[in-house]
Amino acid sequence: MPAFKNLHLVFAFVLVLLPCLAGKIRGQDLVTVLLADGRQSSGKIHEHTDRARLWLLRQEATVDLVSGFWWDQVKEGWIGDQHVGREELQEWSATRKQRSRTVWEIAKIASQGEPIIMLAPAASKPAPRRVKTLVIRAYPAQWNRDALTDGLRISVAPLDSQGQIVPVNGQIEFTLVVEIEKLNGGQVGSIRPEFRDTARKNFIVKSSDFVNGPAYYELPFDHGHPEFDVNIGNQGLVHARLSIPGQGVFEASDAQVTLREFSRFRDQLQYFTPSRYLPIENIRPRNR
To answer: Above 80 in pLDDT, residue 83?
Structure first.
């Protein structure tokens, strides 16, 4: 009799537990995901799901709705009531794929002339790429009619985590720092050099500036032209500060900027004549 009583208690416990287990088993394949933009979506794992995108299948009586999301858009998820991370959900999805119903299967369900609706999978727009770093390069250039170098042309490349250019809107500021080589009896470097900001300029940055790759901006020699001021060193530094709304401020420097390109011919002209340019070039000194 005691044994029978214990068996009766076990049987009663199983009867109470079965509905809970059944509910959990039925909900095992239902997935809810939270996206990076705050939206939520639910459904079963569709057969199109792969390492690139998650596809969720929702079924009504005569409707199969399939929605796709890039895995990068998925922040976290729930399998039934169990919370999981994105990577865990991605691994779990590989063995839980279900197919959409065929037109004939839905037609069999749709009785008494009910409409048959099949929705094609709709790909979700990928999340916008974000800037991770800024790269700049500067070199001497001219942009008017004469033969004199006018300043520096600077290429700007905001890059994402994959090293690809990200077109952005914002504002960028450039600063040119040069070395002033003070002369002492004709000997360069015999007196401590001075480092001086000689040019500074701001530009509005538009995403259309990056249509063909890096954007380009022109920084003129405002105070002291390297071709006329012999105290300015051959190399300088350009610093850039790019402000992007919603992403922050990115900075970069190019410390290998040539200010006065090497030319034995012009060095000889400067040594034996008052100028680095010939009379036929019609160059007048600027910013002396």
So the answer is: yes
Task: Judge whether residue 35 has pLDDT over 60.
Answer: yes
What is the C-alpha to C-alpha distance for residues 17 and 15, in angstroms, rounded to an integer? 6
What is the separation, in whole angstroms, between the first and last Cα of the chain? 115
Contact between 215 and 156 (Cβ < 8 Å): yes
Q: Residue 230 — very low, low, confident or very high, per pLDDT cuts 50/70/90?
A: confident
Q: What are the b/e assignments for 195-230, b being 16+ CB within 10 Å?
A: eeebbebebebeeebbeeebbebebebeebbbbbbe
Q: What local confidence, expressed as pLDDT, does residue 69 receive?
A: 86
Is residue 288 a contact partner of residue 225, using CB atoms and an 8 Å limit?
yes
Which pLDDT score is estimated for 252?
A: 96
Q: Is the pLDDT of residue 12 over 70?
A: no
60-97 burial: b if 16+ Cβ within 10 Å, else e: eebebbbbbbbbebbeebbbeeeebebeebbeebeeee
Listed in sequence order, the residues at least 6 apart from 260 whose beta carbon sits closer than 8 Å to its beta carbon are 140, 226, 227, 232, 234
